[in-house]
Amino acid sequence: MEKFICIPDSFQGTATSLEVCRIMSRKISEIYPDSEVIAIPAADGGEGSVDVFLKVFGGEKVRIEVKDPYFHDISASYGLVDNGRVAVIEMASCAGIPMAGKTKNPEITTTYGVGQLILSAAQRGAEIIIVGLGDSCTNDGGCGMASALGVQFFDREQQTFIPNGGTLMDIRYIDKSGLAKELSGVEIITMCDMNSPLYGLRGAAHVCAPQKGADSEQVAHLDQGLIHLCTRIREDINLDVSEIPGAGAAGGMGAGMAAFLGSKLNMGIEVVLDMVHFNDIARGAKLILTGEGRLDGESLCGKVVDGVAGRARALGIPSAAVVGGVGEGIDGIYEKGLSAVFPINQKPQDFSESRFYTEENIAFAVENILRLVRALEK
């Protein structure tokens, strides 16, 4: 029996990874009716990651009241899988860009609610907490999250406060001694973009803060704040986060996860692949199908297609990426292990039009990949 693996990312705004898996699986069953199809919805830590884990592993969604980016009360959720042993949290659920509304301002938004979700998961007995960074509207270096977990930040008057992006420069001392005891012995794993330094021209503020509403003057101020936070972490916690790949992810949240919680930063897709024992289930497959909405240079920095390509190469299995579009800088993806890239659009349409035909276009591309594979067998 032939075996096929489907492990795509979402086509953001048009199809979830679950929907793409369904389309791919259906087409494989049509062309190879007697085959075994293993579908694994994938995510790299951004919005939708909790649903992916719950779909793959089963479990429950826990909903609690936390603070939103502007410190208003909202209802947010996280997932519990493996009989409650593992919790999965998306920071986007309470600090995501859509929550910033029309008044985006990364100088005042906070990650406090993320800390509340982490604490709730620990209180419910989770032994492993996976936190997905991405799609955030914040630039506070994870200080809000840390404050919710008992870390104290002191200003020049020796008063405690909850720093946000605009007040990182006011931190004079950090005290971790009050970190919630519930976190003792809990392993915290961070899923993030590993190509994001904390500060500088490629850092959190310069690259992402403009998308979160910052003008050029604010970007400079936010960057200086992250530099100052790095200094305080080095002096007060004895950790140099400037050297940690991924420290700048989600407005410096990567640095905060490492410094305040001792978390290891991981490429999101690698966490998923390890959790599902990908190497074991994919071994012997005829073809691995992956994909995402847009494949470009950033995709080579730990996104889903990148991670899957590396595993496929290690296993000696051909792999193909079905993508909505192709940008610059993808040549390296072949060196990573991907066999081929197939854009899906059947007509020369703008995305504003083609987005309504995503399912049809994905099905068309997958069918033709499989027809070619079958023809080569003859």
From TrEMBL:
| Keywords assigned by UniProt, alphabetized | Kinase, Transferase
Q: What is this protein called?
A: Glycerate kinase
Q: Name one Pfam family in it.
A: Gly_kinase
What EC number(s) has UniProt assigned to this enzyme? 2.7.1.31
The protein's matches in NCBIfam families, at most eight in alphabetical order, are given as: glycerate kinase
Looking at its record, which EC class is this enzyme?
transferase
Single Gene Ontology BP annotation: organic acid phosphorylation
An example Gene Ontology molecular-function term:
glycerate kinase activity
What's this protein's family per the entry? Belongs to the glycerate kinase type-1 family.
